[in-house]
Each structure stands twice: as structure tokens, then as C-alpha cells.
User: Fold this.
Amino acid sequence: MAAAATLPALLVAADRVALTVIQGVHGRRRVGQGDSFWQFRRYQPGDATARIDWRQSAKSRAVFVRETEWEAAASVWLWRDASPSMRWASRDEFPHKAERAELALLALGGLLVNGGERIAQLGTGERPVTGRAVLRRLAATLQIERRHEQTDSPSLPRRMALPAYGHVVWFSDFLAPLDEIENMVRYYAGMGVFGHLVQVLDPAEEELPFAGHVRFAGLENEGTHLIRKVEAVRAAYIQRLAAQREGLARIAQSSGWTLHQHRTDHAPQTLLLSLYLALAQPRRNAVAR
Amino acid sequence: MLNLGALAFAAPWALALTIVLPVIWWLLRLLPPSPKLIKFPAIRLLLGLKPEEETPHKLPLWLAILRLLLVALMIAALAKPLLNPAGDLEGSGPLVVVIDDGWAAAPGWRQRQDHIGALIDKAERADRNVAILTTAPAAIDEQPLPRGLLRPSDARALVNALKPKPWPTDRAALAQTLDVSAFGSGATVVWVSDGLDDPAVAALGEKLRDAGALQLLLPDGEVAPIALLPPSAQGNELVLRSQRPASDLPRRIAVQASDDQGRAIARMEMEFAAGATQAQTPFNVPNELRNRVVRLDVERQNGAGSAALLDERFRRRPVGVIGVPPSETGTPLLNDVYYLDRALAPIAAISVGDVKTLMDEKLAVLLLPDSAAPSTADREALERWMATGGVVVRFAGPRLANAPEDPLSPVRLRAGERALGGAIAWGEPARLAEFADQSPFAGLAVPPDVQISQQVLAEPDVELSERTWARLSDGTPLVTAQRKGEGWLVLFHTSANTTWTNLPLSGLFVEMLQRLVALSRGVAGGKFDQALRPYRVFDGFGRLGDPPVGVRAITPELAARFAPGPTTPPGLYGEEGAQQAFNLGDRVGNLSALTGIAGGATLGLIEAQGEIDLVPLVLVAAMILLLADIFIALWLRGLLPAATRLRRAPVTMLIALLVGAALLSPHDAGAQTRDDEVMLRATLETRLAYIVTGNNEVDQVSRAGLTGLSAVLKQRTSVEPAEPVGINPDSDELRLFPFIYWPVTTEQPSLSRDGVAAVDRYLKQGGIILFDTRDAHLTGGRTGAGQGTRELRRLLAGIEIPPLIAMSKDHVLGKSFYLLSDFPGRWAGASLWLEAGDGRVNDGVSSLVIGGNDWAGAWAINSFGDPMLPVAPGGNNQRELAYRFGVNIVMYALTGNYKDDQVHLPKILERLVR
Assistant:
């Protein structure tokens, strides 16, 4: 599949998803703390003299104060799991988990860019920027990564130094051992970063719909496991999966992060809305479904 | 051999292997199949999980049965199953097979071989030797068969190589030379007969019975022989006859007539009534096809006896009539040619003409009515022709009556004619006497109403009486004839039209002429006086082939008692171009049916043996099951593609098939699309076109020039042309382009015929070509003086060019966009030439614009948009004017006379206001 052919399609799909969500969420273009110029305003008694913009004031009789844009939610780093286990779907009509994760990532990126946020892909080392261009770059990077299938792609993001008050959004199946996840979350939370975990699962991973005599094989060289009667272990499996989720929720809660669940047979819009709300209201700990 | 009714096993011991089936069953049910393989990302969560109970894991019952069936089939194949087993041979001694391999055995030869093959198979199973005896003489280029005992495998090879012979059997010879003591006693003798009886049957039967029990096999139904006789004349039509040995059943056969290419021309059916041995049918072939028939075959017989070759004797004789075709004269009923034509048309191919043309054709008979008196030179030619076998039939009339010395007459004639029963004559009109026995007309009935009122008389002569073929009732000759070398000269002493007699109106006239035509020996001739060498001879299946070495030539004496045999097989004899056919069908005498042998023999029928070896079938079935088992095993393990994909597969395959069919279909789909692409490219956007001259420099300038002009058009007008296109009038479609620039060069080759036609068509359909001779700087503005004009004339040779005039000042070309009075290109000064139309053709728009100012040179820009070539005398003004001319001519091409009509606009508006 040529990257050039699918890239616009992916972006269009992401846009379509984002458009359904954007209504009802207010913009953020107002005066506040920040570095970027926002507007000039007449000096009013009480303003600090240090804020007077002398150059502007010299152009006219009035005295002007320089105001900067409010930049509370400065930057969002997005990341999705590119490991082989994500490139799997139990049935043909479902998208791969990786596809869904990329779609959600791009749609979220589109929403954020429209909202004036700056975004970057976590792990590339790029600085967060805003504008439609970053979306195209993001999509292109995803495509390239998808084409150079790396079998050893890690199931968790790499450790990187991020400024405080930044946001990270991770899309993954989060089937890795809980302590690894916890370590990583702790590391980022320790830098003062807010995070949002999105667990993308295939319906078959939730329900284990197989039966009979089955040899299971992992996608990341975990070897095989023979189960002589799958029906008999289904309950135990679902229990284990629930335990994994609970562990995730606990990890998220303890760091003040949010956890979102998503199934590939469900529409991505709900996921996006809950993500967007979570991003708009930082510090609200929630486990949204 | 284990025999179970219709099924038998040749190696029944292998069936003992079936005792392993229960063991295999037990093993199959015991061993579980491999588990399904499923990829699963969340395997980490599954690790360590162990179900408390296991799926009772056994092979599905149906799969176990399938596999058991597979093994059973293999065991069955080992046991060599046979369907319809042939049973065993009686007796204990060797098997003696007597084969009638004469011509009559050709139909159903395959069946005979199969039957004999089955007998030999039985003998082989019983480990008995075989002797093969044939009754027909061996061909001269073949070894006679060994008479002694053979191993069955050798005998089988011998029988497989055996072919029927294109001559009759000679059972007497076999009976004489056969020594049965070599076979010992108790032999089983099987005589595979051809169903024909002859006196030697009893003797041979006697001899064979000495060797052992005799069984006589008779052919049945379709296989029974049929002899086809060559067609013979009966009255005035050809009749096909065939005969068969007597049979109680009616039989319908079809005879196919084919030409020298083997194409079937006609098909005639004939039917033997029950008990009849003869059948016949008229040889009903349309006249024009009859001459093309070279052989006749009884369908589904494939034998030498059921095929008849036709040589020239059987074909219709071409007849020439000297004179003028009656349709060309105004009064056909007075024309004697008309009567001859009408009389002979049903039986002969007639050509009418003068002596010279007719002599060039191959003719059998030449008719010479009185209206065509031959010249001296003609007479000599006719004499020569008769000497080589031609038949000339002359008719009397006033001309002959006045030229009694005419040597072209069988008898000496008296001057003047004799009138009978006229107004001034004595006596009644004469009637015809009965024809004498030795006359060729013998047997023809004389109608009483035929009257002769005028005739020419012969001088009495000693030879007169023997030369006379027909007389009047008073004894005067009416038809005389004289042998001339190989041919005949025949004279009717009366006319061929109705002025002297009403004979031409009677049926007798037609019959007489037919007899005369039959008298001719045809084109090639029926009789011969030298030995005819074999040309093509039949094999036993009725196929013509080169004669083997040793076949004898046929001498005239031999021809009469021609008997087919190894040294004289039936076929064509003679030289290339003139052969005579010797057929088998009319040389076999009467056929009588063989129904038994005096002294007794068991009778049987030759029939196809139904023994079928089932081993390959069973093995194929086992292979199919094995393949199915492999797929089932894969499917059970989940290794086959998903079911959804399988469901889509037929559609995909169908598409692939269709695409493949489209690719393989005879018309070149690729070329079609390529053409379409070219067409679309040329038509989706307006493009200026130039003719590719082959001179690279000129072509580059043309392209750059049109690119420059296109850019100017885009800038200044609503015409937005795409990239210009180079085209070749010989191969490209000109019609797609409204305007073509044609620089004239000396190098460009003249147009092909297609190219000329294409350019002509283009101009007539309203396209515009700007011819640029590019030589204004050399000719000083005098168009028509330079090399370019000569080249232009050469290029346009064959194209219909209307008269040209120099462009007038107020021509629409000067105002179609810009107002111009001068049209400089790279050079200036040369005038423009246009069609001198009067406005009626193509709305007065000139299809041709001819000039010499090298406009493309002025328009040409390089890739940076700068002019490529300087203009002379020079200045940006000149280049600008060149561009303006370019804009004008493109506008002219696209809008025609629109701007000319605009001149009248004020007037039109004025009228509208009123």
C-alpha cells in the first residue's frame, strides 16, 4: 500500500471523526499567561509599568500595554504502540488495533490543532507545533513507521525529558506487564506531565471467543501455548484481563492520569470525545469507557 | 482372477490387505488431529492457564471414514479391478486368428482389432500362443505375416499394425498353402470375416476345422461392407449405385461428394430396401459444382471399396458455341446460338465467343452455327483441334448453302439448298427417319411432328452412306459425320434455328446434342494408347497416397480387365493433370453374404469388447481423496485462508478469467486502450499540432514555435491550448486537431497513399493547414519561386487542391482577432495564398494557408520563455506582428468567418431595432 495513497485517506478519516466531536467545546483564544503576543491594550491605572510596550506607545499618544496569549495547556505529545501485537484483528471486518490507534491519534491531533494546541509525536524528539502542517507530518511519520515494520518496536514509549505541565496521550493495548507500565507512567508523571492512557483492544481479546483444541501463538515471539479446551479457560482469561485493567486504572489514578477503554468494533467518536474532555479539563482523574 | 459379475479382480490376493483396515480405523480414532493454530496478541494472559477438562479430542467420524475409504481405494487399485471381464478362452491349444483383411474389412477395422486384441488378452492370461493368418494378399511393400505361433505380446503388436488392403481377399490361396499341423491339436480357431461369401470359404473352413474348434465372426449392421460404384450415365443424368451383401434389414447410407481440396460439396442419400443388394440415387449436384467433384465416399465406411474416384470422363464436358451471345442481339429467337444454348445449358458448361477465344479454352465440343462461318485460319485451327480429339458440330444455313466448296464438311455438298413444302416447292416438308443402329443417335424416339423444310444436300459418294448418322424419311442425309484424327466433324444439314426446320424446338434436338457431347472424349480423353503410370493409389481405408514401389503401370489391354491387387491397387493412374480413375467398387462383382460355413462352425458377431481396466480410475479417485484430505487437515488446523476470503475467491477467479480472456482475445485490447489514450490526450484539451518532418531541427523549432504561440494565446485570448503535438499524417489521426502547422522541408518523404487520403479528408472536413515554405528570405517574397514550393508540390501530389489566390486586403484572416495588414514571420514580405473559394464550400473558410515567412521561427521560445531565433529585418515589432498573425490564424481556425459576419453587425442591429 503506497503511503501517498493512504495518507490523505487517513487524514480525511481522522478529520471526519474530529468534526463530530469539535462542536460544543469552546476555544481557548484569550488573554492569559504565556510567551506569545496576543494584543495591545490601553494602559490602565494599576498595570505594571514594566508591561508598557514603549515602541507601540511611541507611535501614538496613548500608552499601550502588551498582552500575551494564555498558554495553559501548552503542548500535547501523542504516542501509539507500533509493536507487532497491535497489527492484528480477529476478523476481516475489524480494523487492526494499530489502524484504529493511528486514526484516533490523528483525529485527536486534528482536534487539538483546531483548538490551537501544539502537538508532537512522542519519541521523535520534535518540538510541539501547531497548524495543519503538523498533522500531515504526523500522518507521514505514522505511514513511514508502518511501512518499515519494526518487529522489535517497544510496547511502551521511550523515556524522554518533557517539560512540566505537558500532556501525553498513549494509545496501546497495554497488555505488557503491569510493573513495566507503572514504571513508565511514574517516570513521566514524575516530570509533572499529565497523561492519558487509551487501551485499544480487539473484541476477541476481550471475549476469547475460540473453542476446542487450540494452539495459541503470540505475535511478538512469545512462543506458543496449547489449550485443550478453550471454553474452559475463558472465564479465567476474562478475569485476568479485568485484573490487567484494574491494575492500569490503579496506575493511572495514582499518578493523576486518565484511562480510556476502546474496542475496535466500536465507533472511534466516543473515545475521541472522552479524550478531548479529559484534555480540556486537566487534573480530573477519570476512568472513562 | 476373481469374478464378481460385472466386476472382476485380476490380482485378488491384494484384497487380503483389507484386513489392515480395522487397524487403520483404530489408529485414526486414537490419534488426535493437530490443534487449530490461532495467533493471539494477548497470549501473555493465557500463559499458564490450564483447562480442568479437555475437549474429548478425536478425529471427526466423517474424516475417519474418508481416510479409510482412501486406503480401501488404494488396496482396490492393487487388486487390478476390471469392469465387464471378458471371461476365459475355451480349449487348451493355441489361439488361431484368421483375419479377412480385404477391402470389405475396412469399415469397423478398429472394432475388429479390439475384438482380436481381447482374444489375445485372454490367450495371454491363459498363457497360450497365438497364430495370426490373413486372407488378403500382402501389399508388395510389406512383409508377409509369419504363419507360425507367436507369443501373445508379439501377436498383439502384429494385429495393431495390421491394416485392411484395398483389394479383395484370396481365401483359396490361404486354403492351399496353410499347414495346420504346425498348430498342434485342440487349437481354438477364430475367423474374423468380412462378411463376404466366395467359393473358397468351404475349403478354408475345412482346413481350419482340422486345427480345432472353429468360430466364425460376422460383421453386423454398420460394419457390413458396401461397395460404391462410380456414377454412370442413365439417360441424360448420372446415377450413383452401390451394392452390399444381402441382408434382411433396410439400410440407409449417405454418399459424400468432395472436391480436390477434400471439401464436401454435396451429400446424397440412398437406401437399401430390406433384402435388396442394390441401391441407387441420381447424382444430383448443381451444375457448377459437378465439375469440381473428384471423389465420392460412403459416409462412415472409410474403405477403398466405398470410395469412388472420378476422373475427367465423369465431368461435364465444356461446350463452346461460336457466335454472339443471344442476349447481345436484339432478336434472340432468330439467333441460332440461342437454341444451342438452351438445348445444352442443363448438361454442359457453355461458353460463347469467336474461334480464337474458344480455342484457348479447354473444350470438348465446339458448335458452329451457320451464322458463324469460319475463316480460313479458323478452319485450320479447327482441323488441328479435331485431330487432337475435338468434336466440331456444324449447322447448315443459307451461308453454307452458298459456299458448297467449304472444306469444313464431312461430305461434299451441292450448291444451293433444297426447299421442301415451301410456296414454290414440290412436296411436303420431310420428316425424320428412324435412326440406324450404328448411329450414335440409335434408340432416340423420333417425334412425328418434327419437320424439315429446307436442307443442304450432299453429293452422292461412296462414303456418304457410312458417314450418315441420320436421314430424312426420303433417305437424304440430315446428319453426317467424319472421323478427323482423334475427333469428329459433324454436320447438321439443316439450321440450328427455326428458319429451315422446327427440329430445334423439339426434345429430340436436345437429346441429339447430348449424344454428340457424350461422344466427345472429354477434355482429358477416356481412351488411351500408352501405359498409364500409377499416380495416386488407395490404401485400405480409402486414403489416396503415393504408390509404393512395384505398382505396375496399366496398359490399354489391362485396363479392360483391371483387377485390384497388390500390384494394381485402385487409384488414379496417368500423368499429373491427366489421370484416369480405376475404382474398386465396379470390379468386385456381385457381393454375396457369408452366413456360415459348410461343415459347421459356431457363429458370433464382431463387437466392441467392454472390458475396462479400472486401475487408473481407482487411482485417480484415491488421489482426489488424498488432496481433499490435505485441504481438510489444513482447514481443521485453521491454516486455510478465512472463509470470507474463500467466498470471495470465485468472484476473484471469475474476474481473473475474464481479464485473461480479454487479454487473449484476438483483438488487441492494449492497442485499443493506447489509441483511446492518444485520442483522449488530443481531444480533452485544444492542442495546436505540427507535422513532424523528420528534420530534427525543424521539428524542434515547430514545437517551440507552437509552444510560444500557445503561451501568447493563453495570455491574450480565451483560447487556452495545451502542449502542442507533433503528428505524422501517415499514421496519426489528423481530424482531432483544428489547426496544423506544416513546415515544408526537402527531407520529408512523400506521403503514403493512406497519408494522402488522410490529408485530403482533413482538408475537406474543414481542418486548416498552414503550409510554411520558410524560404521568403531566399525568394524575396515571390511565393512560388523557391525550392520550398517545389517540395510543397511534391508533398501535396495526389491531394485535391482547389485553386489558390493571394490573400486580399480585407480577408477575414486580417481581422479575426487583431487588425493586420501584414503577416511577417521570421522573414517578412512573402504574400499569403488561400483557397479561391466562392464562399460555398466550407462556408468560405480556406482550408489551406500557404506562405513562406517561417512563422514558427518567430514564435519559437526556449524553456525560459525567451525567443530562440532572430527575426529579419528585425525588431520586436516584427515578432509581435508574427504572434498577432498566429493568434489570428488560430482564431480563424476556431471561429471561421465569424469576424467577417461581424462586419454586418451594425446593419443587423439596426434591423432588430426596427
Remarks:
- Residues 266 and 285 of chain B are 7 Å apart (CA to CA).
- The two ends of chain B are 118 Å apart (CA to CA).
- The longest strand of chain B covers residues 264-272.
- The domain at 321-519 of chain B is CATH 3.40.50.880 (Rossmann fold).
